[in-house]
Design a protein that fits this description.
mainly alpha, five-stranded parallel β-sheet, 39 helices, single chain
Length: 827
């Protein structure tokens, strides 16, 4: 303590009594406390009066000779010279900065502007915040700005020291510093008064991962009364893992960093190891690493090392499946040093988790571990409950504690809540949680202290099972959750004991049925494939359960629009069932019906008619004319006959079916809706467009109410109503419906799905009738390209697109020829 007072007295050139009193008064005014006894705790608990005295001595050091006593113009020579002090120089950027062009352009524009302000580059550990800030600082310096780099050390007194020295370098008058020292003004206000008066500077405060400690005192950053403010005439750039707008306040501009794209990731890897493979191979490795810059740097340095076991991008990517812990997630012997930990993928996440835990969110680490034990796909929020945490950890958890822990994980970028759509118009934004793939793989390596891996896995399986049961029992309300649950079910089946596999298998089948009702073909396909694999492994390929699974998988594949693959699988199942069960067995009839439906989708209408006619005859004989399976056969035969141009026969069959289904099932039953839709389509082909439009409008209204606006069946009704309106000459209404349908199909089904192709074709035809030939040609050309690639050049759908494109081009040329030369637009 004596040494501290001595240092303080020395600083005041022997004026001991006055110096001490003035220094404490200055400190009190700076920090905003009423008693000096609180000083040491406020400035961090590690600096104390000795550190304060040393800081005061440093602040009294003469300013650089190139600076005037006070003031200064923007961009002047002395302002640039102020940033030459080595301790405030920005770190060198060791490699080209890839994939951050837009962020760098924004920062460069802000640094070069005259408005100044506060910018926070934020994101989870390892995304390259410091690198981006260093590159932006280098560009600002090249542009004539005075750049100062401050490394946050979780010490408000140290930050006060640094910013005061920077203010001095920028011309802070001695009399204003004396006002702060004597207690007539708060130092933080004096510093920011100078930063607001001088232009042409950029100050970077790097790695502010504990913004609550910025100070002075307990002032939060968003109050703009502390050391971080948006009031400067230059640019204050902060880097932080804290991504919450509430932390930084409404005047801060946040620049959240996301992982790099596969292309940019590949470029980073090739910068480090140019001989390790092609651009495509580098991009594939970059995608496997989730575009995480720190992981890319780790992989690049490994591949560039001539003694490494794996020397190519492909070999390294394959090795990650079995050696992830050694290659990316290995512990570092000096990980206790925060600066070392920031450079190691595994420990950069540990730093954040330790900080969150120290803040009192004790459920954060186990909750993140449970999420990491699931598949690297979005998880429904309803699965993560206090009961799950309690069962997994053995410690009582409350809903409030879990909510707070998840909010902290989100704030520091360890979890995301991505926006999504449930396929039926249901928003999922607030209902799902996802992890970056690298966070997922790293966190799964080690259970939190005091947590048992087997207990966590067991608790997850139990709660996952119950969530599936709740979801499948919820009807349409459960569809969004069902889609999110699907990727997490196959692992549950894989590690179920052999003796109990049928219970878990049936659970997956039930969820797959729900997904089928929801029109979620991709998720249904995943579960059907898993069930088939399990049945084949346990029961053999010809067991009745395996054949049911194979048939169901083929139905899901058909729903994806992959008709040839579905037909092959249906044919294989039909052949086996005819051999084992006979041609009239209900399961055989089901396989024959499914195969015929897929042949119809492939344009093989004659074969489809033969199979459907055989099935209808058998079912009428065995089951009767009104049995649901007989009605299905009659419907499908009518569809195939219509495709062959036998429309009146098709109308008669559809009308018979519709009358029976309305009587037995009611007007709103899905099968009744199917009959009404198919009858309307056939009437349309007979030229009875108004009758068709009336039926389609009735169907569309019911399906939007029951299934939602984006369900595949609703899309079918909207498409068919638009077609009927088009045939009635109501082209503008038809265009609006077709455009709505195409946009939805592309989003939900993808650009190559058969339904999307048909929507694109129908929109193009309607646009052509409105005289919008250029748009029609573009759409037909797009469709032709897709169909040639997907179906081949000779498929009926491809030929249809080729003919439609030729007709649209001819119509466009004909329209051009009818115009006067100066009226013609370029084609």
């Amino acid at each position: 303590m004596d040494l501290g007072w001595w240092a303080f007295s020395s600083y005041r050139d022997g004026q001991t009594g006055t110096g001490v009193a003035g220094g404490i008064a200055w400190a009190v005014a700076r920090i905003g406390l009423e008693t000096a006894d609180q000083l040491s705790s406020v400035i961090g608990g590690t600096v104390g009066l000795l550190g304060l005295a040393v800081s005061l001595f440093a602040l009294r050091s003469p300013a650089p000779a190139t600076l005037p006593a006070a003031g200064g113009g923007a961009g002047g020579r002395w302002v640039r010279a102020a940033a030459t002090h080595p301790s405030y120089r920005a770190p060198a950027v060791q490699a080209p900065v890839r994939g951050r062009d837009s962020e760098l352009a924004d920062l460069q524009s802000l640094a070069a502007g005259r408005e100044g302000g506060l910018v926070v580059v934020c994101g989870t550990g390892g995304l390259g915040k410091t690198t981006l800030a260093a590159q932006a600082a280098r560009q600002a310096e090249t542009g004539g700005r005075a750049v100062f780099w401050v490394r946050w050390q979780d010490d408000a007194a140290r930050l006060a020291h640094d910013l005061t020295r920077i203010a001095q370098a920028l011309g802070l008058p001695e009399n204003r510093l004396h006002d702060a020292q004597s207690g007539r003004a708060a130092l933080v206000d004096v510093v920011w008064e100078q930063l607001a008066a001088v232009r042409g500077w950029v100050i970077v405060i790097d790695n502010v991962d504990t913004p609550r400690n910025l100070g002075p005192g307990s002032e939060p950053p968003r109050s703009y009364r502390g050391w971080v403010r948006p009031d400067g005439a230059g640019l204050l750039l902060v880097t932080s893992r804290d991504t919450a707008p509430a932390t930084w306040g409404p005047q801060a501009r946040l620049v959240p960093l996301e992982p790099l794209s596969a292309g940019a990731s590949g470029t980073v890897l090739r910068d480090a190891a140019p001989a390790a493979g092609t651009e495509e191979e580098a991009a594939a490795l970059g995608e496997r690493l989730g575009g995480h810059p720190l992981a890319l740097d780790t992989a690049g340095r490994y591949l560039a090392n001539p003694t490494s076991r794996y020397r190519t991008f492909t070999a390294y990517r394959r090795a990650l499946d079995t050696e992830f812990g050694d290659l990316i997630g290995a512990a570092h012997p000096q990980a206790a040093d925060p600066e070392v930990a920031r450079t190691v993928v595994r420990h950069t996440f540990d730093l954040t988790l330790a900080q969150i835990h120290d803040d009192g969110y004790t459920l954060a680490r186990p909750a993140l571990f449970l999420l990491a034990l699931l598949e690297p796909a979005p998880v429904p929020r309803v699965l993560l409950t206090p009961a799950l945490l309690t069962d997994a950890t053995g410690q009582q958890a409350t809903a409030a504690e879990l909510d707070a822990a998840l909010a902290a994980l989100h704030q520091y970028g360890l979890i995301n809540t991505p926006a999504a759509d449930g396929g039926g118009g249901e928003p999922l934004t607030a209902g799902q949680i996802s992890l970056h793939p690298l966070v997922h793989d790293v966190i799964a390596l080690t259970p939190p202290p005091g947590t048992d891996h087997a207990a966590c896995r067991s608790a997850l399986d139990t709660h996952l099972t119950q969530t599936v049961r709740d979801t499948t029992g919820a009807g349409r309300a459960g569809w969004p959750t069902a889609r999110l649950l699907a990727p997490h079910l196959p692992p549950l089946l894989r590690h179920t004991p052999n003796a109990g596999f049928t219970t878990t298998r049936d659970l997956l089948d039930t969820l797959a049925d729900t997904l089928h009702d929801a029109g979620a073909a991709a998720e249904e396909h995943l579960l059907r494939q898993s069930v088939l694999n399990t049945n084949t492994r346990h029961l053999g390929p010809d067991h009745p359960d395996s054949l049911v699974s194979r048939n169901n998988l083929a139905i899901a594949i058909h729903g994806l629009g992959q008709y040839q693959e579905a037909a092959d699988l249906f044919q294989r199942t039909l052949t086996t069932r005819e051999r084992l069960m006979g041609s009239d067995h209900p399961d055989t009839l089901s396989s024959r019906n499914s195969l015929a439906g897929t042949l119809y989708g492939l344009g093989r209408h004659h074969e489809a008619v033969d199979l459907h006619q055989e099935n209808l005859t058998t079912r009428e004989r065995i089951l009767g004319s009104d049995h649901p399976d007989t009605l299905i056969s009659r419907n499908n035969l009518a569809l195939a006959l219509n495709a062959l141009g036998q429309r009146q026969e098709a109308v008669d069959l559809h009308q018979q079916n519709l009358t029976t289904r309305e009587r037995i099932l009611g007007p709103d039953h899905p099968h009744t809706l199917t009959s009404r839709n198919n009858l309307a389509g056939t009437l349309n082909g007979l030229g009875r467009h108004q009758d068709a439009a009336d039926l389609q409008q009735q169907n569309l209204t019911i399906r939007e109410r029951i299934l939602g606006p984006d369900h595949p069946h609703t899309l079918t009704s909207r498409n068919n109503l638009a077609t009927a309106l088009h045939n009635l000459g109501r082209h503008h209404e038809a265009v609006d419906l077709h455009q709505q349908n195409l946009t939805t199909c592309e989003r939900i089904l993808g650009p190559d799905h058969p339904h999307t192709q048909e929507s694109r074709n129908n929109l193009a035809d309607t646009l052509s009738d409105l005289g919008r030939h250029h748009e029609a040609v573009d759409l037909h050309q797009q469709n032709l390209t897709i169909r040639e690639r997907v179906h081949g050049p000779d498929h009926p759908h491809t030929q249809k697109s080729r003919n439609s494109l030729a007709a649209a081009r001819e119509e466009m040329a004909r329209t051009q020829r009818r115009r006067l030369p100066w009226q013609r637009s370029r084609t």
